[in-house]
Amino acid sequence: MFPSETDGATRPAERLKDSSATRPHIPAPIRRARRRGTWRRTGIIGGRLVLLAALLVAWQLCSNARIVDPYFVSSPAGVANFLYDYVRSGALWTHLEVTLRETLIGFAIGSAGGIMAGLLLARFQVLDDLLDPFFVVVNSLPRVALAPLFLLWFGLGALSKIILAISLVFFILLVNTRVGMRNVDTDLVTVGKLLGGNEFQMFRSVLLPASLPAILAGLRLGIIYALLGAVVGEMIAAEAGIGQQLTYFSGTFQTAGVIGMLVVLAIIAAVLDALTVLAERRLLRWQKKGRM
Q1: pLDDT (tens digit per residue) in 215-245
Q2: Cα separations in angstroms, 4 against 15, 16, 142
Q3: Which of 19, 248, 250, 284 shows a CA-CA span of 20 to 30 A to 46?
């Protein structure tokens, strides 16, 4: 027996009715709070844009009126013209690729090593007591002072910049991971043991999720320090990269070029930070669900 046309016509309406009936009802106070949050975020973004525009206008006016010497501080128009020509020439993409490659490789290796070391030190107290003084001494050394040694040991190529980035990221993730693992709520650990969880299950279901916010905070900080390490190494000695271009434009007294490279670095840092924040929000969605 085939379905009639009236049956086919009524089924979509029934589905729509059922879906609206099962849709969760959001209380009015929560809706108002969400609207206020949206308006607040919009206002903050608008305020930032207005402040940035005001600073740029003031800078341009002071440069045009010779209140400040354009030779030393350039102007927004001069920086914009430089960046336009620099992008059109294709030179930006060549140097940007070098810096990003060094940054991402150093970040990946340094963060992986730091997380693994932090987990081991948090798990084995004897190992932590044995190695802690050495980690403190090495971490206290200024990386800028070590950069010439890295260049001497690993050459002028990308390897020395990657090692410098690793040395910065490793200790950030080590400290954050170790602190995160040791600050897990003891009640969670006790409940997990009472439920019969073995060591692996405790690590996977209790310790790692509870320490994840600290680890992600370290990753967010580490990606910026990886970029700084790569740029600092390039500024000291390199064949290519944004840091090498910074040193070149500074040595040839091209102020617009120096500021333009700083703008490029600021954009790179903002994009990398936004990506880590996005990953952090996705990985920590369970926290928001738990609070609701």
Answers
A1: 888 999 999 999 999 998 888 888 888 999 9
A2: 17, 20, 80
A3: 284
